[in-house]
Amino acid sequence: QSLCFQTPHLVNLNEDPSMSECLLYYIKDGVTRVGSAEANIPQDIQLSGSHILSEHCVFENKEGVITMTPQEGALCYVNGREVKEPVVLKTGSRVILGKNHVFRFNHPEQARERREKVAPTDNSGTMKDMMFANGFMVCGEKEEEVQKQLQELNEEVN
């Protein structure tokens, strides 16, 4: 089987559908470091941009549980909320690093477990998932309406 069917990973999301979901970043067993190419310690995932620190955050994969820990001063968001402390990620979580790097976290094992719990004919989550992903990038929408949608979807994810 392909790595993406076994290994937890981040997949990029973009306003332009042709650019969305074309980059995968695998979260290896142990520690995966995220930062810029200028870091003193080599970063496993290298991102660029004025809001990406040289050592931005760390993903720890311990027995299949993935924890993201932002470095001090790093802009990190999970499901629309700024994160300053370690947070355990769930499949489907939206992760924003800096101001421009938007990802969906996929954990194949969690996704399989979720599919087994939901009836195979239940497609209600598909549209909500798209709204949730687009909620971070909606321009011209009232912020409170977007926040309300994100809150409702976040409650369903959790």
Ends distance: 29 Å
Helix content, binned percent:
10-25%
Strand order of the largest sheet: 2-1-11-10-7-8
Strand content: 25-35%
State the total count of DSSP E strands: 11
Number of alpha- plus pi-helical segments: 3
Order of helices and strands: EEEEEEEEEEEHHH
Average predicted confidence as pLDDT:
80
Rg: 16 Å
Secondary structure class reads alpha+beta
Shape summary:
globular
Q: Biggest β-sheet, characterized?
A: 6 strands, antiparallel
Which residue ranges are poorly predicted, with pLDDT under 50 across at least 5 consecutive positions?
121-131, 134-142
Keywords: ATP-binding, Cytoplasm, Cytoskeleton, Microtubule, Motor protein, Nucleotide-binding
Domain Kinesin-associated: 6-31
Organism: Timema podura
Protein name: FHA domain-containing protein
What does this structure look like?
The protein has helices at 108-117, 124-135, 143-157; strands spanning 9-13, 24-26, 30-35, 45-46, 55-62, 65-70, 76-78, 81-82, 87-88, 94-97, 101-106. The protein is globular. By secondary structure, it is an alpha+beta fold. The longest helix has 15 residues, at 143-157. Helix 2 (124-135) packs across helix 3 (143-157). It contains three helices and eleven strands. 23% of the residues lie in helices and 30% in strands. It starts with 8 loop residues before the first strand and ends with a helix. Strands 2-1-11-10-7-8 form a six-stranded antiparallel β-sheet. It has a five-stranded mixed β-sheet with strand order 4-3-5-6-9, with no helix packed on it.
